Amino acid sequence: MRIPSGVSGFDHLIQGGFLPERLYVLSGPPGSGKTTFTAQFVAEGLRNGENCLYVTMHESREELVEDMSGYDFGFETLSTSKQFRFVDLTNKRAKRLLSQSSGGDAPLSAKILADKLVAFVASRDIERLVIDSTMLLELFFAEGDAEMTRFLTALKECEATTLLISEMTDPSAYSDEHFLAHGVVFFHNYLEATGMTRGIQVVKMRGTDIDCDIRSLRFTDEGLVIDPTKRVDF
Fold it and tell me: pTM for this one?
């Protein structure tokens, strides 16, 4: 069984969708479409009656809904569903819940966060999980890269299909999340005199026959649209 992404054209690049209950990393520079992709992914799940969880560290639920309200894929309405859960880790209540001390001031442990998330996913029967993003998540970990590795390793045991946003501008500079994930999707954008050229590239997808060429990506009223037949050269 494959999990549809909700992004027009993308599933053609990965044999019909994501393999379930695996960890996938979305990497790329700011403004390249990562958050919009994850919102479409969540919207698709909600349309199919699935329980979805969105974990973030840099915006409120209201801000995410407002940002996505300009598109026609229905996120604004779908996000009111009881099947949609949103956690802002900068929220004081969330910090108290996830902190390793009752005071809430100690650095967040990767193990505690991973255990809490995995347990929450299991107890709420979460089928789609989004975490935005690794760059901000690292600020919560006292030991930096070492704890990030422990967090990602534990997260791979999660029963949800997970999309993890990773802010990255150099596609050749791989980090721990790229090696540990089951799949890696890279977003490209390049500003030319004629405007912005955008592309998407599946660089890794275990259990899937993929084409690693960069394919055309566009922002439209319906959200991101990918042309799997159009190759883009940068």
Answer: 0.89
For strands 223-231 and 52-56, give the pairing: unpaired
Counting Cα atoms < 13 Å in the Cβ hemisphere of 176 gives 13
Q: Are 229 and 211 in contact (CB under 8 A)?
A: no
Q: What is the pLDDT of residue 57?
A: 80
CATH no. for residue 78?
Answer: 3.40.50.300
Helix (H, G, I), strand (E, B) or coil at 75: helix
4 in any annotated domain: no
Q: Which amino acid would we find at residue 231?
A: R
Q: Tell me: the pLDDT tens digits for 174-208?
A: 566 778 889 999 999 988 777 889 999 999 999 99
Average pLDDT over residues 106-134: 83
Whether residue 184 contacts residue 25, with contact meaning beta carbons closer than 8 Å, is answered with yes
89-127: b or e for each residue (b if 16 or more CB lie within 10 Å)?
Answer: beeeebeeebbeeeeeeeebbbeebbebbbebbeeeebb
Query: What's the CA gap between 19 and 11, in Å, rounded?
Result: 11
The verdict on residue 147 lying in a domain is yes
Cα 34 to Cα 97: distance, rounded to the nearest angstrom:
28
